[in-house]
Amino acid sequence: MTKRIGLLGGTFNPIHNGHLQLANFVRQQLQLDVMQLLPNHLPPHKEQPLVTAKHRLAMTEAAVNDQPRLEVNAIELGRQQPSYSVDTLRQLRQQHPEDRLFFTMGMDSFVKLSSWYQWQDLLNYCHLVVCQRPGDQIPEQGPEALLWQQFGLSISELSNLPIAGHIVCLDNPLWPISSTEIRQQLLHGACASQLLPPTVAQYVADHQLYQQ
Ligand code: ATP
């Protein structure tokens, strides 16, 4: 029996309620067997996080502990080089030759996709699932717009999909939460507990993360 596997890569610095809402929304809409969260080791497109990969992994594990069908996959933490998604997806495709893989991202990531390493190969290994995020919209021109025009599908066309090769853009509610905002709040002494899963808020407090 083939599976439908969702994948959500991120720095999770820290993981927040927006990530969980995104993961659960995609899991339900696409009727996934599982949604895997993949913390990266060295994010290629961001400043290197001050909080270690070990802490980010532990927070991600704490966040999904009580979430059915959400799992953590630490595949990127085993590699010392930058965590290029294309390498991860190639590896996952080898492990799951017949399953449908749905690599999920927010619109802020999709609008910059053409800056990713070997971005044109991504659809060889997976489908892309793009969710709305405040501040960004589906591009009207440029390489991402062309990619969307060529490979975009509506959700009603999802039933008979091949294992990879298409892009689906979901009409999700907006979740105005970012790790950047949470780091700022914690730095200024706020607890940010409204924006974090309770287990993550507790982990941050116990380890005194993101403070001055
Ligand atoms: P930072 O503020 O440090 O840039 P972030 O909040 O964007 O971090 P990441 O770990 O970089 O968090 O995000 C991982 C993935 O989740 C990205 O594809 C991002 O677009 C998506 N994502 C994160 N938060 C949201 C959100 N609130 N709504 C929709 N997508 C989101």
Automatic annotation (TrEMBL):
Transferase recorded as keyword: yes
EC number assigned by the record: 2.7.7.18
InterPro entries in UniProt: Cyt_trans-like (IPR004821), NadD/NMNAT (IPR005248), Rossmann-like_a/b/a_fold (IPR014729)
Pathway assigned to this chain's UniProt record: Cofactor biosynthesis; NAD(+) biosynthesis; deamido-NAD(+) from nicotinate D-ribonucleotide: step 1/1
GO molecular-function terms, A-Z: ATP binding; nicotinate-nucleotide adenylyltransferase activity
Swiss-Prot/TrEMBL catalytic activity: nicotinate beta-D-ribonucleotide + ATP + H(+) = deamido-NAD(+) + diphosphate
Example GO BP: NAD+ biosynthetic process
EC class (word): transferase
Gene3D superfamilies: HUPs
Domain Cytidyltransferase-like: 7-184
One Pfam family from the record: CTP_transf_like
Keywords: ATP-binding, NAD, Nucleotide-binding, Nucleotidyltransferase, Pyridine nucleotide biosynthesis, Transferase
PANTHER family named in the record: NICOTINATE-NUCLEOTIDE ADENYLYLTRANSFERASE-RELATED (PTHR39321), PHOSPHOPANTETHEINE ADENYLYLTRANSFERASE (PTHR39321:SF3)
Function: Catalyzes the reversible adenylation of nicotinate mononucleotide (NaMN) to nicotinic acid adenine dinucleotide (NaAD).
Family designation: Belongs to the NadD family.
Protein name as it appears in the record: Probable nicotinate-nucleotide adenylyltransferase
Gene it is expressed from: nadD
